[in-house]
Amino acid sequence: MSADNRIIRVIKGRRPKVVVIGGGTGLPVIVKSLHEQNADVTAIVTVADDGGSSGIIRDYINVVPPGDIRNVLAALSDLPSLYLDIFQYRFNSKDAFFAGHAIGNLIIAALSEMKGGIFDAVQQLSQMLKVDGHVYPASNTPLTLNAEFTDGTTLSGEAEITGAGKHIQRVFVTESDLNAKEPPQAVNQVIDAIMNADVVVLGPGSLFTSILPNLMISNLGDAVKATKAEIIYIVNIMTQKGETEHFTDADHVRVLNRHLGEDFVDTVLVNIAPVPSDYLDHQKYDEYLVPVEHDYQGLRDLGCRVISADFLQLRNHGVFHDGDKVATEILNLAFQVGTMKKRRY
């Protein structure tokens, strides 16, 4: 849908302000659909990824991993598709240096060096890509994800954590620069966006490695608890190996609440469409296990409003959220709360 043909939806003369917090492949899908339905979108993207092209770049130069940020920039861009195809192009050359790298990742890494940090680099690139909305790295510096397991052991690094085969008790983030003297912090623009939002959306994405790394930045997590915006959690459709085996939807929310020390999630979006047992390619999507089971009473006990619907999209033998359907529900909630922000006590 082009910028000129978007659905025009406004709250008291303005577009609804939606902040989406997360990372991974699900984030740009939701962000793109919100953009096409005329939301004023701010995406706050995790900077603790250590895999793929992003991880390789991070190993060579001390920059925030750019992959998730690149995909969200493309999702919010109003440039013609040809330019975005070039930005998103990933080399398939056998050359050891370029193989597997996306051009956009290299541009983000270069701008980060030029601007002295990822935040200013992304704002400059947002102008170049004609981004409608805002893309904010959760931190201006690279972060390391750490996990404590139920057996008392700890590990650092997303790949190591999910590959450990253990049950995660909690996660936390630290500065990747071992010489850093201050704990990780989000910049003021991130905090302002959360405080001024109509709704704040968590996910969809990996609970421990895409969503919680953002909330574990202390001032960002505090802002999510303090904002008068509606807090919406998009429950994953499938459980995930190394993270959420045997989790119900209520278990996801319990983990979020435990990490922030209070019941802060207001609304959950739950998919109820069945996943065909023979559809998912478990070799291609080897991290996905089984559909998340529903515990509606558990969610209600946690003070959550539950919106259950067919949010399922099947494509390429993978299981995904239907971005358009999810965005519609998010905006319906934004209109409900946009004219009268709730009070938190």
From TrEMBL:
Keyword Cytoplasm carried by entry: yes
Instruction: Name the major location.
Output: cytoplasm
Q: Which GO terms describe its cellular component?
A: cytoplasm
Under InterPro entries, the record lists: CofD, CofD-like_dom_sf, Gluconeogen_factor
Question: Organism source for this protein?
Answer: Lacticaseibacillus brantae DSM 23927
Subcellular location, in the record's words? Cytoplasm
Q: What SUPFAM superfamilies does the record tag this protein with? A: CofD-like
Q: Quote the HAMAP family the UniProt record gives.
A: Gluconeogen_factor
Name it.
Putative gluconeogenesis factor
PANTHER family with a match to the protein in the record: GLUCONEOGENESIS FACTOR-RELATED, UNCHARACTERIZED PROTEIN YVCK-RELATED
- Quote the Pfam families the UniProt record gives: CofD
Residues crossing the lipid bilayer are none
> Does Cytoplasm appear among the keywords?
yes
